[in-house]
């Protein structure tokens, strides 16, 4: 998935799920051949060598297309197809010449030996690319439904009602603060109305969360404290818009509001290797809720992680030491993008 680009021809070959969907069927084919060849009386080792070469070409193609996709993504579709079919074809020639002796020294014999293998590789590559592309297209209705759920979950009546009541209370005592609160509220709803499929920088998402917490801080006063740990945060990491804000809202709604005593929400974001880790912790309520908590935000975030990052995006929840923790993992991705100047958070604007 790209940010603002046309739907790409090449799949995300850096994604673990794509690698599994390509390599597992090929390796299952190798196992099937190993099982069927002795029963058919065919020579075991030559056929197994061929299967292993196919596997090697597939793995090498994924490794090459992983960085190459970022270069050709957004280019003309024929150029993307040239990369998608040309890389496996070229690697077939390399692997074939490196692992097998050509049938004869003549150029005609070499060409006649290579052409069927190259054409077969290109046909298999075309089928795999089409399969993965159609799979992504089939997920588009799920993404549309997820966007609708995200919009419904974001515009929570109780949040708007409480925010407006807070502004009304400030109109006479502190008009300037009331004006700043309305500006923050406008910024929030401006983002709420945008397409939630858009990938945004992590620092923009954190800014949105800070604006939301500023509004809640006015209402909850000393009951709400927030501790940010952002020293290791990669601000340019891309993630779906409105991915973290509902988790922050859940922490306020279920961890701060039910308690009489002040509580602290801790948000820690860091990059570990090629992955980003986000941890949001809030205190457990003093008494168990009279009705089950609303897990819409958690399920919605988990679904959007799966749609955007496949198996590389995970959401985990734990409860220990009086704290409820949500831990989000997703791959660190950064693509060429055209964006307006990023906003900066000014609580005293």
What are the salient characteristics of this protein?
2 domains, 7 strands, Heat Shock Protein 90, elongated, alpha+beta, 5-stranded mixed sheet, 349 residues, two-stranded antiparallel ribbon, disordered N terminus
Topology diagram in text:
Layout: H1 16-40, H2 44-72, H3 77-99, H4 107-138, H5 140-154, H6 157-173, H7 175-192, E1 199-201, H8 202-220, E2 224-229, E3 238-240, H9 245-256, E4 263-272, E5 275-283, H10 296-309, E6 314-320, E7 323-331
Parallel strand pairs: 2-4
Antiparallel strand pairs: 1-3, 4-5, 5-7, 6-7
Helix pairs in contact: 1-2, 2-3, 3-4, 5-10, 6-7, 7-8, 8-9
| Residue share in helix | 55-70%
- The number of distinct helices, counting runs of at least 4 residues, comes to 10
**Mean pLDDT across residues:** 79
Q: What's the structural domain tally?
A: 2
Structural class: alpha+beta
Gross CATH architecture of the largest domain? 2-Layer Sandwich
The stretches of 5 or more residues where confidence is low (pLDDT under 50) are 1-5, 337-342
Order of strands, main sheet, comes to 2-4-5-7-6
Shape: elongated
Total beta strand runs: 7
Task: Report on the architecture of this protein.
With 349 residues, this protein is α+β, with helices and mostly antiparallel strands. The protein folds into 2 domains: 16-138, no CATH class; 142-331, Heat Shock Protein 90. 58% of the residues lie in helices and 13% in strands. The chain is built from 10 helices and 7 strands. It has a 5-stranded mixed β-sheet with strand order 2-4-5-7-6, with helices on one face. The radius of gyration is 26 Å and the shape is elongated.
